[in-house]
Known about the structure:
Helices cover 18% and strands 32% of the residues. Residues 1-7, 15-25, 125-137 and 325-330 have low confidence and may be disordered. The protein folds into three domains: 3-128, Tumour Suppressor Smad4; 184-247; 259-324, no CATH class. Strand 15 and strand 16 (212-215) form a beta hairpin. The strands form five sheets. The protein has a seven-stranded antiparallel β-sheet with strand order 1-4-3-13-12-9-10, with no helix packed on it. By secondary structure, it is of the alpha+beta class.
Amino acid sequence: MATDLDSSSPTFTAGKSTAGNAAADSSVSLRITRAGRSSILPLATERQVVGGSADCDLIILGDRPEPALAICLQRSRGAYTVSLTALRDGLTVDRRSVQRDQTITLGKNQTLSFDGTTCRLEGPGRLEGLGAGRVRLAPRRIAAAGLLALAAMLLLAGFYNSDAPAQQAPLVKVSAAPEPAPSSAAIAAEIRQAVRMAQLSPDLSVVATADEIRIGEGSAPLSLPDKTKLRGIIASMSRRSSVAIVDLTALSSGLDGFVAAAGYTPVRFIIGSDGHRYEEGDVVPSGWRIKEIRNDQMVVSRDSEDDTINFASAGNAEPKLAEISSTEQD
């Protein structure tokens, strides 16, 4: 998982931990820097995806919401080789372009850049690389030739021993012990870190119990952009959590003080601060639909979320009663 170099790291890890595998022994890592802030991703022999979307193993905050690259560590004869695949256009290695879906071998101290983010490969002395831009075709050809030679040997052995009685080798079933799922307390700690790095409200509560993790209970409502960030964090963490993650936050429309006047007969309507008239069912400029106009408040909805705006909210006088002319009544 990512190791923060400072308290404002630009990334957080959404995938499973790589502790205990080859990455921990190799000390080969990728230093990721964005907007002057850095994180270190220890590389693993399994494929790791880096980018700005919620399904990435390492999420770069502020990056485009899509995967950028996939990186994998391979060990051969005591040395390590880092294989990198570009998953989007615009990636460069030492100022040389890497095409989408192209796989290269990344060398030590080479610098990868994309969309304001730079990545630098760091590792021990025995880190081998063929240089950026060189497609790794030779290992595949060697493996294919080896498989063909092995098939030929097996075919010849079967031809000369066709009269020998067939013997079935005993089957041995090997099952690896499953990796234990992180505890609810560990997942809650990662959610708090992600909330902090996403610059959400520091008062947003995250409470872990034995059965679930409750987010936002008793906290202030969130704006639509902050609610969207939180949904992305919950979607990412839910893939690893063994307990349910419950979002109890409310959505704020930000329409306090929007109503300048209200009318109730013969139809209910309001006059907005923009000078326009809105009735029940109309949509205000911010995208919220007026669901109901009451005598002292208005209910608006968006994306199955409701918000109630009191006409006499704090700091605002109750809006005056709007009068309808005889022309409007007709």
